[in-house]
Amino acid sequence: MFSHLAVATGLAVGDLLFYAICFIILMWLIKLVAWKPVNEMMQKRADKISDDIDSAEKSREEAAQLATQRQEALANSRQEASSIVDSAKKQGQQQRDGILAQAQTDAQSLKENAQKDIEQERQDALSSVRNDVADLSIEIASKIIQKELSADDQKALIDSYIEGLGK
């Protein structure tokens, strides 16, 4: 059966057997020499790719975590800034109220002092006028007693006293 095949193709069974044995030996040599290093190289490459993927995933998770922390820190900073501004506003309002209350107290005190001064000046003026009137009355009475005055003399006397008051 092989003989017909061998004659038709021009191959002999011995040649076929020789090629088969050479192929098997070549495969065995490739397995010994090249297959192990190629498999090791492919395994190392697969491990490296797997490690790179794991490292990239870990870096992505860390970046997401850092972004979350930054967002929280930013929110806290905004809240602190808001509370500082509110506190400053409250302190400013309190200072303003204190200044206004002090100004009102000072104004009331000045007003009361001015009223007291005015009343004192009024009392002094009234006392002075009373003294002047009393002096004038005494002086007029003494002059009237010293001499009898005619109508013209009375008028001249009154005019002279009025001039004296004006001075």
TrEMBL record:
InterPro entries: ATP_synth_B-like_membr_sf, ATP_synth_b/b'su_bac/chlpt, ATP_synth_F0_bsu_bac, ATP_synthase_B_chain. It is a single-pass membrane protein. It is found in: Cell membrane; Endomembrane system. Residues 53-126 are annotated as: Disordered. Residues 53-63, 113-124 have a biased composition (Basic and acidic residues). GO terms for molecular function: proton-transporting ATP synthase activity, rotational mechanism; proton-transporting ATPase activity, rotational mechanism. Keywords: ATP synthesis, Cell membrane, CF(0), Hydrogen ion transport, Ion transport, Membrane, Transmembrane, Transmembrane helix, Transport. The chain crosses the membrane at residues 16-35. One of its GO terms (cellular component) is endomembrane system. Residues 66-112 have a biased composition (Polar residues). It comes from the Bacteria. NCBIfam families: ATP_synt_b. F-type ATPases have 2 components, F(1) - the catalytic core - and F(0) - the membrane proton channel. F(1) has five subunits: alpha(3), beta(3), gamma(1), delta(1), epsilon(1). F(0) has three main subunits: a(1), b(2) and c(10-14). The alpha and beta chains form an alternating ring which encloses part of the gamma chain. F(1) is attached to F(0) by a central stalk formed by the gamma and epsilon chains, while a peripheral stalk is formed by the delta and b chains. HAMAP family: ATP_synth_b_bprime (MF_01398). Component of the F(0) channel, it forms part of the peripheral stalk, linking F(1) to F(0). Belongs to the ATPase B chain family. This is ATP synthase subunit b. It comes from Secundilactobacillus similis DSM 23365 = JCM 2765. The gene is atpF.
